[in-house]
Amino acid sequence: MYKLFLTLRYLRKRRIAYFAIAAVMLCTAMVLIVMSVMGGFLDQLKSKARGLLGDIIIDNRSYSGFPLYEEFIADISAWPEVVKATPVLYSYGLLRFYDSPQTNTVRVVGLRLEDAYHVNAFKSSLYYERFYPGTTTLAEQQQPLLGFDLRSPPIDWRDERGEVMGQGPRPALPPPYQEALEQSWAAGVRDTESPETEYTTTMQAANLPPIAGIYGVVPGVGEPALMGEEQPGLIIGRDILAKRLPDGRYQRLWQYPRGCLVSLTLLPASEAGTLDTPVKPLLRYADDSRTGIYEIDSQHVYCDFDLLQKLLHMDTAERVDPETGTVIGTAPARCSQIQIKIREGANPRELARRLERHYHGLASDPRFQDQLSLNDIQLIHFIEGMTWEQSQAHIIAPVEKERQLVTILFGIISLVAAVLVLCILYMIVLQKTRDIGIIKAIGGSSAGVALIFITYGAACGVVGSAVGSLLGYYFVIYINDIQDWLTSLNPAWQVWDRSVYSFDAIPNTVRTGDIVAVVVAAILTSTLGSLAAAWRAGRMEPVEALRYE
Amino acid sequence: MSDALLIADGVHKTYDMGRSQLHVLRGCSLHVAGGEFVAIMGKSGSGKSTLLHILGALDVPQQGQVLFEGRPVFAPPKQRHFYAHALDVLSGYERRRIALRRRAFGFVFQFYHLLPELNVLENVLVARMVGASTCAWPAQRRPARKDTLAILEHVGLSDRLKHRPAELSGGERQRVAIARALVHKPRILFADEPTGNLDAVAGDELMALLKGLHAVGQTIVMVTHDPGIAARADRVLRLEAGVLREG
Asked: How far apart are CA B99 and CA B108, in angstroms?
């Protein structure tokens, strides 16, 4: 009993212990903040990287792609573990907005949009689809122009100061865009993130929700209209066409209204890997996608799978003998990747291996012997089945390693707390040498005396880690507010530049497991720091301790 | 001889002084019977305190043995060096020494040796806590506190319970030390120059207290250099040249 009694008394009376507690507290908070921010960064990266992928990916990492994907999808659609599978094409191209000198090198993704909505989270990354549900399509389309609804009652038009300038018609989009917009208004969906558009003030003054996005405007006071020739739609990565503001929001540029023309230069490749003559189709900007990963959003554009397949000469074609020029068969269509959504509870790794084996089996399937060339068979043999995590390992693994490294580094720095506890307790043991003699003289054992100082160190760890974890927890929760406040004091103090990082905000979630790990480590470290002092105290002979001056 | 409570037999103690050795005790032997008040006299530096510490199991002799109630207090001489440096959980003799200090022996020191962070009540109560486990303490706390208050009343300090040692006079501090030494009802009270730091009046009061304790059967072994103080004991031993002699 005396051990606990004296430990608590020394904790209260020896103010020097507060320094040890403060050191443990700061180190606990520091490690918890680092673990939480880095862990949150990793979680966000994983969830964003997951967005454009199915649960399982079938890929052969070849620009030429691989054949028999439709047959494979038909086969596996009967498998109970498979919910949906869709082919995807990848290529590279040059993107140029029609009336703009600006040209971007882009990675072109061909996908079947409706299927992709079921297989991955691509839909949630689309901007216009959110505010105009059902209007984003990769099919042929015209450009919607913002005009005025001349049949509805006029509304008050006000200037920027809010004073009525007069009455005017209400801005409106052509169908089906206007219906879709009103549908999202009715559902309470509002674009509160984008900077203002031209009619926002007018709409606000008329107590109407804003018209999301940027549209071309009909000349004069005309009805909304669909303009231009029908062209296939193209979804563009948001960082290609919008300016990222320091606060993380995006400002779409006026020169890129929805439906504007875009030219895409593509280089088709044959099954043998040789490049054909470039093709340069015109497309219309249908929507923009934001996965949250800058490397994707600044480089990817998405068009219809069948269109891209045709443009890249990867669709079904006659196979011609190069020497005689005669048709000798049919070359099967090719894709670059198959994304598969699987049922919950299925084992993705095991299923990926089974799918890979099944695909390899198609190369020797008698059904397709007449269709496959030697190149096709080789392309099939390069196919790998992998989970989405395995396919994204090149992005996730370095961040995971960074997280471990930074945590270890800060953990090592935190050993300073253990050294400080050791020094302070050693000092207390020296100061309390005579007390140790007294305790031993009245029957305190060596182990008991040592335990007083071990408990003392552990108590410093408990109190320090408890306060430190609270401090770290609230620091992480309010980390973005703290940064905003610092930036408001001095813009140079902005640590997390939202125009640079992939994410809008510093990750601010604290995992319970991290708190437990840090607190346990802090208590252990602090207790270990007390061992040397405790050993010295326990080894003291009572008579020598009583004589200590 | 057979009714002796404490026996010292041929106790030797040498201090290593670097290049030389100081042979303080050269075969001290004594018998203390139950209820006896023994005074050990000697000049300053003669080894009285060292002998008292050995008798009270606070220090370990190089040779010789001390028996309490017929049982040896120290390990056989060849094992003593090891046990002196071993954790007490490993050594039965070490555990016995601790048990004797907790339950059978009480100490009063010349310089009081009170814990400065604790008040009077706590300084005495801590001696009871030492023998109790954390789990058992809630049940023992009330009787221990009652005994502590009773002993503090006996030594005349019931009105100074919340005072810290720094707020007490020398005589009062020594009475707290006596209360702490007696609170677990020891078989032997060891007093090391108990009046050495007190004025004559306080010294007299303290000796009266010790005599009173002895009158009710308390065995006391006291070390002093003052013949007047020693004369109040039943028996006086002199420590000269490292050897104890009667009278």
From this structure: 18
* The predicted structure's pLDDT at residue A206: 72
| B113 chain-A contacts, CB cut-off 8 A | 434, 437-438, 441, 546
Helix (H, G, I), strand (E, B) or coil at A318: strand
Contacts of A9 in chain B (CB under 8 A): 117-118
Q: Residue B138 corresponds to which tokens in the numbers above?
A: 């809630």
Question: How far is it, in rounded angstroms, from Cα A265 to Cα A106?
Answer: 10
C-alpha triplet A152, A153, A154: angle, nearest 5°: 110
pLDDT for residue A337: 94
A443:B137 CB<8 A:
no
Tens-place pLDDT, residues B202-236:
888 888 888 998 999 999 999 998 888 899 898 99
Nearest to B97 by CA among A440, A538, A1, A436: A440
What tokens does A54 get?
Answer: 């199915």
Distances, alpha carbon A362 to alpha carbons A122, A172, A315, A447, in Å: 30, 54, 19, 73
Q: How many pairs of residues across A and B have Cβ atoms under 8 Å apart? A: 77
User: B39 — phi, psi (to 5°)?
Assistant: -110, 135
Contact A2 B129 (CB under 8 A): yes
Residue B13: pLDDT over 60: yes
Question: For residue B59, which residues of chain A lie inside 8 Å, CB to CB?
Answer: 541-543
Residue in chain A closest to B56 (alpha carbons) equals A441
Residues 6+ apart with CB under 8 A from A331: A67, A271, A316, A317, A318, A319, A371, A373, A376
* Separation of alpha carbons B127 and B144, rounded Å: 10
Determine the average pLDDT of the residues in A255-264.
Answer: 92
| pLDDT, tens digit (0-9, with 9 covering 90-100), for B99-141 | 999 989 999 988 888 999 899 999 999 998 987 887 888 888 8
pLDDT at B76: 81
Query: What is the CB neighbour count within 10 angstroms for residue A343?
Result: 12
Set out the domains of chain B in order of their start, with CATH numbers. Answer: 4-246 (3.40.50.300)
Which helix (H) or strand (E) is A393 found in, with range?
helix A393-431
Q: Whole-angstrom Cα distance, residue A234 to residue A380?
A: 30
E strand or H helix at A454: helix A446-477
